């Protein structure tokens, strides 16, 4: 199969490109390098030994996409995987307009590209943040992906502008499938905290970011690099050790989920139109903040940490029910919690060497 992967130089995108190439698929990456580096492309080509095409273009700017369109028409594509988006929860609260502009515009433009290239198989990168805080655990795909705003009670919104942008994107995908059921075949994957790294140690989240509300694993690595304290926000939750519990999944398992989703789309769309399907991508197990920190320490990774007060909007535990992905996509996570931590530490030392 031949893929277009937007945001393919980013953390999850790069790992997915590795897995696609490992399965013999061809990849064209579109990325503007705003949250990544072109150096990642050279590493990908070296690791995969594949002829990965690359276009530097901002997907939120339709003119830039039009400029590369003719060149893209030299191939017939089987599937588009759309990662390109701003994704930091804390930053989205500070820059909501930028998040809506980028995340919505890039989706609308990639849908235009799908139509013009006659490639109607799309996998969309979504998030567990679309679920309401009060949804029953474990989270299943049939929970309404919305939550009432605490500031404006009459408006339906997400937990933050990032989450709301993902809800809006999912709504767009729902609406186009409803309007043109004979055309679109779309899979939405809702991730639960991807962590870890490829065995090479060459790909991962930045070790120099200062953005708030980073993934806990990324925060641990960045704080170690900057010689800062990692704060545990709340130790009085109704959990086994009082700290918040989250569902972490190895990024290579997330990458594998995209391959399984693409292969399922290819099989199903050849028989009938699939419309829109949503899948949770997690392990179904939760680990507390203290359990994560202690696991890093057990592996010889020194961490300075302190207990702080709860953050607004945080909940005691979040973990997925992945039965649907297990049964339909025939996907199951392979990597253990220990492997997630070990690979994160290996990436840290690889980047410093």
How many E-type strands? Answer: 16
**What series of H and E elements makes up the topology?**
EHEHEHEHHEEEHEEHEEEHEEHEEHH
Summed over residues and divided by their number, the pLDDT gives a mean of 93
Gap from first CA to last CA: 37 Å
Report strand order across the widest sheet: 3-2-1-4-5-8-13
Radius of gyration: 20 Å
User: What is the annotated CATH architecture?
Assistant: 3-Layer(aba) Sandwich
* Parts with pLDDT < 50 across at least 5 consecutive residues: none
Share of β-strand residues: 15-25%
Main beta sheet, described?
7 strands, parallel
Helix run count:
11
Q: Tell me, what's the shape?
A: globular
Instruction: State the CATH topology.
Output: Rossmann fold
CATH class wording: Alpha Beta
In which range does the helix fraction lie?
Answer: 40-55%
CATH superfamily: NAD(P)-binding Rossmann-like Domain
Tally of distinct domains: 1
Structural class: alpha/beta
């Amino acid at each position: 199969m031949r893929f277009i992967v937007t945001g393919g130089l980013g953390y999850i995108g790069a790992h997915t490109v590795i897995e696609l190439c490992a399965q013999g698929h061809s990849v064209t990456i579109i990325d503007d390098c705003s949250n990544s580096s072109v150096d990642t492309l050279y590493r990908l080509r070296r690791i995969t030994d594949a002829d990965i095409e690359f276009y530097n273009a901002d997907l939120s700017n339709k003119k830039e996409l039009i400029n590369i369109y003719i060149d893209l028409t030299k191939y017939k594509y089987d599937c588009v995987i759309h990662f390109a988006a701003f994704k930091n929860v804390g930053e989205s609260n500070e820059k909501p307009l930028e998040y809506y502009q980028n995340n919505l515009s890039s989706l609308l433009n990639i849908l235009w590209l799908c139509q013009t290239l006659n490639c109607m198989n799309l996998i969309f990168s979504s998030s567990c943040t679309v679920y309401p805080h009060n949804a029953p655990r474990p989270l299943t795909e049939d929970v309404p992906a919305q939550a009432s705003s605490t500031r404006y009670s009459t408006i339906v919104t997400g937990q933050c502008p990032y989450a709301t942008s993902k809800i809006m994107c999912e709504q767009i995908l729902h609406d186009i499938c409803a309007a043109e059921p004979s055309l679109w075949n779309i899979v939405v994957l809702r991730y639960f905290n991807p962590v870890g790294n490829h065995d090479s140690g060459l790909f991962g989240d930045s070790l120099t970011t200062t953005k708030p509300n980073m993934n806990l694993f990324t925060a641990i690595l960045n704080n170690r690099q900057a010689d800062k304290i990692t704060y545990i926000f709340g130790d009085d939750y109704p959990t086994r050790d009082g700290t918040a519990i989250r569902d972490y999944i190895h990024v290579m398992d997330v990458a594998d989920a995209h391959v399984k989703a693409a292969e399922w789309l290819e099989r199903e769309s050849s028989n009938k139109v699939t419309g829109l399907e949503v899948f949770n991508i997690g392990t179904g197990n939760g680990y507390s903040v203290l359990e994560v920190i202690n696991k890093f320490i057990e592996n010889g990774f020194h961490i300075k940490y302190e207990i702080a007060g709860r953050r607004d909007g945080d909940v005691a535990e979040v973990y997925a029910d992945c039965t649907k992905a297990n049964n339909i996509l025939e996907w199951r996570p392979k990597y253990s919690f220990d492997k997630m931590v070990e690979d994160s530490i290996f990436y840290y030392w690889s980047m410093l060497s």
